[in-house]
Amino acid sequence: MREKMSLPSKKAIQVDENTVSYEYKMLNHVMSLVYHEDKCVECGFCHRVCPITVSIYDEPLKRTAIGTPKEMKMESDKKIVVDTEKCVWCGSCTWICPGYTLELFINGEKKLNLVENGSLPEFEEEVRTLENGQKVRKVVEGSITITSTEKDTKVLDTFCDECAVSAMERKDKEIEVDRDKCILCFKCSEAAQNYDNISVEIHRDRFKNIKGDPSSVWDGIMLRVLGKEGKIKG
């Protein structure tokens, strides 16, 4: 006798070695948030843009539906995981993802309702191709400053390797940033916490040129990614 499925149902489905589909299935409606592990650059944007996040300016983020296993307090060998009990399948994380790592499907069709209904704007993409052939895009404008007193070249090389888009390079005992490559994500600033003599300050001033007149959903994203004052360090 075949076991009956209780609806609605929420579950994570391992599609293949690099792909996980987080599925929310209702009677006549299926939403799937598909995560491609091999494309993830560990930027940290998805964790911050998630509307389930409750954050206080300059304090640690609290309660979010997506993030690293450590942030989510979940056991996994994946770079990021989704808590299906918290996720609302809104697509905000897919909208901002620089590495095209996340995709939202509604009844098998790839789409973003928040963009289609005007809640979120379309924005100008600055896309480039990494050495491995992967495409990444820059979604925010701003600046980055790296301060280092580290003299050990091996440590400096290790830190430069933290960047998933190859925007950092050691020149003698200095760290140089290729600002055309840098996507102003959170990876190196978070990694710097593990280095005694290296610090990173990033100011995200604004999103790339946006189109349309977005709703209050946009205000929440501006707060979580750019901060109350329009700028956030990190």
From TrEMBL:
- 4Fe-4S ferredoxin-type domain location is 31-60, 78-107, 173-203
| Gene3D superfamilies, per database record | 3.30.70.20
One Pfam family from the record = Fer4_10
Give the protein's recorded name.
4Fe-4S ferredoxin-type domain-containing protein
Please name the source species: marine sediment metagenome
